[in-house]
Design a protein that fits this description.
By secondary structure, the chain is of the alpha/beta class. Helices cover 29% and strands 26% of the residues. It is built from 8 helices and 12 strands. A hairpin with a 2-residue loop joins strand 4 and strand 5.
Length: 253
């Protein structure tokens, strides 16, 4: 049997009291695309931090491709919700992407030839090769998101974690971003945190609902009742049967 991309067994976590996550069991297969949804404060960001090794479980275990999180860290690409970059700092697009090559080694001395080759390849994968020398501050919101994706991809990850990647982007730019994600999921496993339930219903194979406890749902089985249980409010289903039989969106009633 193939080793899962993510295997979580009997995991619980607390900062103090009470538990933030309780008795979490989760298996994500290689090449799968899953989305984490849930209310603010429900534990979504905590779960990502545990997957990244930034936090240690209070109880239970996490394995990434059959190894500990610490051992597998070089196989994980991460795009945070808020990048710690000053948009006015005079740094080029290529420089931002190269930051992703610093993982696991000291930031001393010039980048190696292999680092620069990997950075150009990552920019090519997101369609921004021509902007390599452009100042990062000159880019549009959608272009900046693509650069940050390239930074996450430059370490050639097998698992990509995205935290609210379309926050504050308009619908047209979001659609462009989702088209990119569809291309990326052909080669790597992806876990994305999102509040865009319309996207979830159209593109994702599995939904991971997080509100202290974790429940998994195949997208086709996601219902308004299931979401109401997670979000604590009544939800209404909006179906688009004329477009595609099983596509639907959810929004608060």
């Amino acid at each position: 049997m193939e080793t899962p991309a993510i295997q979580i067994d009997n995991l619980s976590f607390r900062y103090d009291e009470p538990l933030v996550l309780e008795d979490v069991n989760l298996c994500l297969h290689r090449g799968e695309f899953a989305c984490i949804v849930g209310p603010n404060g429900g534990g979504k960001t905590t779960l990502l931090k545990l997957l990244l090794g930034l936090l240690e479980p209070t109880r239970g275990t996490i394995q990434i491709f059959g190894a500990s999180v610490a051992s597998a860290r070089g196989q994980i690409g991460y795009m945070p919700q808020h990048a710690a970059l000053d948009r006015q700092f005079p740094v080029s697009v290529l420089d931002v992407v190269l930051l992703g090559r610093l993982t696991g080694r000291l930031a001393i001395g010039p980048y190696r030839k292999a680092d620069r080759a990997a950075a150009h390849a990552a920019l090519d994968s997101v369609g921004l090769t021509s902007l390599a020398q452009r100042p990062f501050s000159d880019l549009s919101g959608g272009q900046r998101q693509r650069v940050l994706i390239a930074r996450a991809l430059v370490c050639n990850p097998r698992l990509l974690l995205l935290d609210e990647p379309t926050a504050n982007l308009d619908r047209i730019v979001q659609d462009d971003f989702y088209a990119l994600v569809r291309e990326l999921k052909r080669d790597i496993s992806i876990v994305m945190v999102s509040h865009d339930l319309g996207f979830v219903s159209k593109e994702v194979e599995r939904v991971i609902c997080v509100n202290r406890e974790v429940h998994e749902h195949p997208t086709r089985e996601l219902t308004g009742d299931a979401l109401a249980h997670i979000y604590g409010t009544e939800m209404r289903m909006i179906r688009h049967d004329q477009e595609q039989p099983h596509r639907h969106e959810q929004e608060p009633a």
